[in-house]
Amino acid sequence: MKNFLKIDPAFEEKKITAWIKNVLKTQNFKNVIIGLSGGIDSAVSLSLVRKSIKPDNIFVTHLYYFKSEINSLLPFLKKLNIPQGNIYNISIKKSVDELKKLAKLTKTSKDYNIRLGNIMARARMIILYDLAKKHNALACGTENKSEFYLGYFTRFGDEASDFEPIRHLYKTQIYQLGKHLNIPSKILNLKPTAGLWTGQTDEVDFGFSYEEADKVLSLYLDSKKTFSETKFPNAKKIIDRMRKNSFKHISPHTF
Asked: Distance (Å, rounded) from C-alpha 44 to C-alpha 42?
């Protein structure tokens, strides 16, 4: 990994936890709710929240469509001392399938997987925000800088949150922070996936790796290089994707 993507994990931990505490204080909230998918981003975000507030003030949701992974996540949650009564393991399949019917979405529909994934992401947020209201909690987001600039999120779905503790870090930097936070190896080694359909992975969807994307994005966005100056094979594809999805960052348009 290039030095320009290297971070000081201990410093990041201190900086982010102080920021989380300040957000809660200034917004007058004591509780936080977070969706735990089983991936690195949500695990790191939860760990940072846990280092910021007491476990009794944290509520965790595992909102699944295909198969619950809660049993594999329980040891991690136990390690963080999250109370069992604060953990929600909820299937969204029934509600998503009903929404599919209303939208007349079938496997022969154009962009079926993408549309289904968007419905799933938005259905999760309906539940998460209802529970946030129930527990008077702020919703913690889990988006990283790579996903943000590549537009790899569903508007008003997995992008929805009240605060984002790791959005300033690229995906490869999240792994550095995850190792520092002693995130379980099973989570660290899991191929990044949004879990939108069986066998789906982020990097297959992209056609390039996060490692390459982070290098290109950092050079292009942070060092102000042109994509040709980055000298990576997929540089144009990465920048083109970023530009194509940039509209997601400026909506809604207002008069």
From this structure: 6
For 103, other C-beta atoms within 10 Å of its C-beta total: 12
> Minimal CA–CA distance to 227: which of 212, 249, 248, 211?
212
H or E element: which one contains 34? strand 31-35
Q: Measure the CA–CA gap between 170 and 3, rounded to whole angstroms.
A: 13
Q: Domains, the chain, ranges and CATH?
A: 3-202 (3.40.50.620)
Residue type, 84: Q
Task: List, for residues 26-78, the tens digit of each pLDDT value.
Answer: 999 999 999 999 999 999 999 999 999 999 999 999 999 999 999 999 999 99
Among the residues of 135-188, which ranges form H helices?
145-150, 171-180, 185-188
Question: Cα–chain-centroid distance for residue 81?
Answer: 22
**From CA 174, how far away is CA 162, in angstroms rounded?**
20
The answer to whether 174 and 144 have CB atoms below 8 angstroms apart is yes
pLDDT tens, residue by residue, 121-165: 999 999 999 999 999 999 999 999 999 999 999 999 999 999 999
